[in-house]
Write the structure tokens for this entry.
Amino acid sequence: MYFSGILAERLPLRYYLTVGMLMSGLFTCLFGLGFYLNIHSLGYYASVEVMNGLMQTTGWPAVVACVGNWFGKGKRGIIMGVWNSHTSVGNILGSLIAGAFVLSAWGMSFIVPGLIIASVGILTFFFLVEKPEDVNCTPPQHHENGETGPSPRINRRTDKTSDVNTVVTTEPVEAHSEAISFCGALRIPGVVEFSLCLLFAKLVSYTFLYWLPFYISHVAHFDAEEAGDMSTLFDVGGIIGGITAGVVSDVTGGRATTCCVMLLTAAPMLFFYNHLRKLSQAATIGMLLLCGALVNGPFALITTAVSADLGTHESLRGNAKALSTVAAIIDGTGSVGAALGPLFAGVISETGWNNVFYMLISADVMASLCLSRLVYKEVEGWCGWACRTKGFKEI
């Protein structure tokens, strides 16, 4: 992922995404063909899955950069919150497709999604527009005050002889064309904190993604297909949580605080879910929706709006080629958690599922602690704004 983001800054995104999607589809299909070719080699499946993961890293840095090119900072949270629902929709479709074939011919659980992503890759090649300039549209300007659109600077110059104010309009400075370096992206304020936060948040999210059907099947005693269908409720909650997080962060201006509050609230909810599952199916459904919203809300916000914010940070001084690299650093660090979470869950589950949930709760708390410095700065800014507002009113 780290390498992929750097590469995406230097290549045409449309071609880059197309090749990545076609190759992802190929390796996904090759995994499923193992069923029909009667392949029982662990090395085959491991190598195909590694190549599949490598190809799929082309996706996220490139798509975040494309969307970031089209939208400025104003309303970015809600726009990207709605847009990011595609990840949960994909997870839901993947679970439903896998569940439909798992009891008959599991190979189709991979071949069908592989054909879908390859087909969409072809659509991407023909229809993706990377930047507004490519279709003669005005690119958005990324202002700290949340406004978008071109905004020429207006300087007022006073003529000393006549005391007449003269308005001088200066066009916006051209964005730098040189792509940012990996170390340069790391120096952007907030990148390291949000990257570490996503590591723990993605650990929780992907543990649910991979282990929830198994957990529902073996602990709640549903059959495999029903467990796959039930697990999609977690992603339905994720859609709600992602949009909610975007709206709240837009209104308050506190991306870090929004994530921190949701993560801290998710910790006790995970505890309750593990115990309320024994009460009724309705309680299980409600807790799955709630946990999905609280766990995937910060995950969605960090990988979209936060990545775009940091990729267009004021410290870059107009450098437009940082979105992919920043998105890759943040999501790549999160992928470390995505790899470790399911691995730890498999080991810890042998000692009891309660311990797995304690691990997930601890990860949520650690994710929120990673944002403590940024939350403090946001709260400090709100307090300063409140004091200034109060002072103006008194005057």
In short: Residues 281-311 form the longest helix (31 residues). The two ends are 54 Å apart (CA to CA). The chain has a mean pLDDT of 82.
